[in-house]
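Our consortium's second objective concerns turning raw sequence data into structural hypotheses that experimental partners can test. To show how far this objective has progressed, the report includes one record in full. It was chosen at random from the queue rather than selected for favorable results. The single chain below, 188 residues long, was entered without modification.
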Amino acid sequence: MLLVSLTVPFHVDLAEEHGNSEEIRDVSPDKKFGARILFNANPENAKKPDYISITDADLVSLPSKTKLMEIQTSEFSFRHLVWSSDSNWFALSLSSGPRASDTYIYHRTGDNFSEFKTNNLTADVAGDVRNEYVTPIRWLKPRLLLLKDEVTFRGGGGATVRFTARFDEKTGETKIISQKKVSSRGMR
């Protein structure tokens, strides 16, 4: 579960306090928001964090770095934010364990972002699914997101499905409007 808070000034430099390094990345198209990543500063990743070394992540306003929201972090959990062109929506994929990842959607209202609740944001894949990784690819336009669902089946084999979801902020509904099975090589 992601923790969302009201806008809180970010007065303490956590990077210095914990001996970590920081990076601002995944900046919104309007340059007003970004992800502030803290990561272990050791020789192997001193210049560029990898997803394993991330110790903390927050959504911040720019350029002030005011913390808007905490992004859940644990081993393998946070990779990146995917922004809509109007900077009012973002999607992120978080691992809920070694065999699954889910995509979470956030919508801006005023100066804050809140989670847009989705029910089981996955493609319709027939079979006995063992592992499932749902990740956002890109926003086609605001409220319309292209995702991929990579699954492995019990007993072997797997599938990759690209699907498009539409989000209606007035009704709070999520609708899968298209899906297509693709080869793994075609998803880069």
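The partners drew two points from this record. Helices lie at 14-18. The radius of gyration is 17 Å. Both points have been shared with the crystallography group to help prioritize constructs.
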